[in-house]
């Protein structure tokens, strides 16, 4: 298998690519559906070995330029996770935040923190996944007063985006390790609660470890088609199954049979609805594109509190860049990335959470979903600066 990049240079090329990708059922990495392929923007495609022989000559014949991003995908997968076998992964006190962890390891780690940091950490579950796994949340913060504002953070809505859950774990580590020494962190944990969901799509994430590294959706079964899963970021009750979502159960952007059909989405939506007076920010972590997005996703329109949100985004992106010079684009999701309906970020915003953001973490396609473990630390370090920046912005009044 290979990953190739194509940038259509005309309407003709756009149509040819959409048709070819639809026909061959390739795995689109960027954008998420053939529908979003437009002239002048990047399309990254995973081409299975058996399709390589038909697709690449076809593109050459059509005179469409492409570059090979990853020439041997299996080798890249093995390189991503390094030598797994010989490192000590069970010890929780020496938990390694610079490697990717399986779902089981992440759950063990959460239980460990719950026992060890009972003054700052409270672990609970908001429900069960389609396959019956608990949906764990860590509530982080000093129990300084009964009512505090809160920030929600989720990672891993899309299973294959492993850097997301790695960041959620990193955030918790940083909060606990720097609480005593960093006045900003102290202020954040004293004045706010953080609800952190390290792995939103638990079934899909598990499946991406055991069966298919590039699985994206949930794992619910569809009776009529022999396809599994729904795109958990197209399943929310906001302009559900409109532009940018698919009605076909086999597609990567399938919106589901109805809004909140996925137990994971339903459970989180229920929790957020219940706490919407308290929760002031919703942050969701995805990959890859190096972007910081805010509403709307489903339409080209300006949100009412645009100035506050836009300045928070601008400052966050600058803070992020200060670490390693990595540049993030920022703006409304619809115009910065593409139009998509039924997203968690739009839903959170529509349900009264004034600051709703989706991060698209590193990189811009060189590694794609296979960001090597060596890049976990720099990615999380810079992202941490952005998240702290947004959180501190939240504590100040914005007019």
Structural class: alpha/beta
Oligomeric state of the chains? single chain
The total domain count is 2
Strand order within the widest sheet? 5-6-8-7-9-12-10-11
CATH superfamily of the largest domain: Zn peptidases
Q: Average pLDDT value? A: 95
CATH class descriptor of the largest domain: Alpha Beta
Any idea what the shape is?
globular
Name the CATH architecture of the largest domain. 3-Layer(aba) Sandwich
Largest sheet: 8 strands, mixed
Binned strand content: 15-25%
Percent range of helical residues: 25-40%
InterPro entries: CARBOXYPEPT_ZN_1, CARBOXYPEPT_ZN_2, CPAH, M14A-like_propep, M14A_act_pep, Peptidase_M14
Protein name: CBPA6 Carboxypeptidase
Cofactor: Zn(2+)
Domain Peptidase M14: 99-394
In short:
The chain has 399 residues and is of the alpha/beta class. It folds into two domains: 2-71, 2-Layer Sandwich (Alpha-Beta Plaits), CATH 3.30.70; 103-217 and 230-395, Aminopeptidase (3-Layer(aba) Sandwich).
How would you sum up this structure, described in words?
By secondary structure, the chain is an alpha/beta fold. It has 2 domains: 2-71, Metallocarboxypeptidase-like (Alpha-Beta Plaits, 2-Layer Sandwich), CATH 3.30.70.340; 103-217 and 230-395, Aminopeptidase, CATH 3.40.630. Helix content is 36%, strand content 18%. The protein contains 12 helices and 12 strands. Strands 5-6-8-7-9-12-10-11 form an 8-stranded mixed beta sheet, sandwiched between helices. Strand 10, helix 9 and strand 11 form a beta-alpha-beta unit. The termini are far apart. The mean pLDDT is 95. This is CBPA6 Carboxypeptidase. InterPro entries: CARBOXYPEPT_ZN_1 (IPR057246), CARBOXYPEPT_ZN_2 (IPR057247), CPAH (IPR033843), M14A-like_propep (IPR036990), M14A_act_pep (IPR003146), Peptidase_M14 (IPR000834). Residues 99-394 form the Peptidase M14 domain. The active site is at residue 360.
């Amino acid at each position: 298998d290979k990953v190739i990049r194509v940038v259509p240079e005309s309407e003709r090329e756009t149509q040819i690519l959409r048709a070819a990708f639809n026909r061959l059922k390739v795995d689109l990495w960027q954008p998420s559906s053939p529908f979003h392929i437009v002239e002048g923007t990047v399309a990254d495609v995973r081409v299975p070995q058996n399709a390589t022989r038909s697709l690449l000559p076809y593109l050459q014949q059509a005179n469409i330029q492409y570059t090979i991003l990853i020439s041997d995908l299996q080798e890249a997968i093995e390189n991503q996770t390094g030598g797994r076998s010989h490192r000590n992964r069970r010890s929780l006190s020496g938990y390694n935040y610079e490697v990717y962890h399986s779902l089981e390891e992440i759950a063990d780690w959460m239980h460990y923190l719950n026992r060890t940091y009972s003054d700052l950490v409270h672990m609970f579950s908001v429900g069960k996944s389609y396959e019956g796994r608990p949906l764990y949340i860590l509530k982080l913060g000093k129990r300084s007063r009964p009512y505090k504002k809160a920030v929600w953070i989720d990672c891993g809505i899309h299973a294959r985006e492993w850097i997301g859950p790695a960041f959620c774990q990193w955030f918790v580590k940083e909060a606990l390790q720097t609480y005593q020494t960093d006045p900003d962190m102290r202020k954040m944990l004293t004045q706010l609660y953080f609800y952190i969901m390290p792995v939103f799509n638990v079934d899909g994430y598990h499946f991406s470890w055991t069966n298919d590294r590039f699985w994206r959706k949930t794992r619910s079964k569809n009776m009529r088609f022999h396809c599994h899963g729904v795109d958990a970021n197209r399943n929310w009750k906001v302009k559900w199954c409109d532009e940018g979502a698919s009605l076909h159960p086999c597609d990567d952007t399938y919106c589901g049979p109805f809004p909140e059909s996925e137990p994971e989405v339903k459970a989180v939506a229920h929790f957020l609805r219940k706490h919407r007076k308290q929760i002031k920010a919703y942050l969701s972590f995805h990959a890859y594109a190096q972007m910081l997005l805010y509403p709307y996703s489903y339409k080209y329109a300006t949100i009412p509190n645009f100035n506050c949100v836009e300045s928070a985004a601008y400052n966050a992106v600058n803070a992020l860049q200060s670490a390693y010079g990595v540049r993030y684009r920022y703006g409304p999701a619809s115009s910065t990335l593409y139009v998509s309906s039924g997203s968690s970020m739009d839903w959170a915003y529509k349900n009264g959470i004034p600051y709703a953001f989706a991060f698209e973490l590193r990189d811009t396609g060189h590694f794609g979903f296979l960001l090597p473990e060596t890049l976990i630390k720099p990615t999380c370090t810079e992202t941490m600066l952005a998240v702290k920046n947004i959180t501190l912005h939240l504590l100040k009044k914005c007019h």
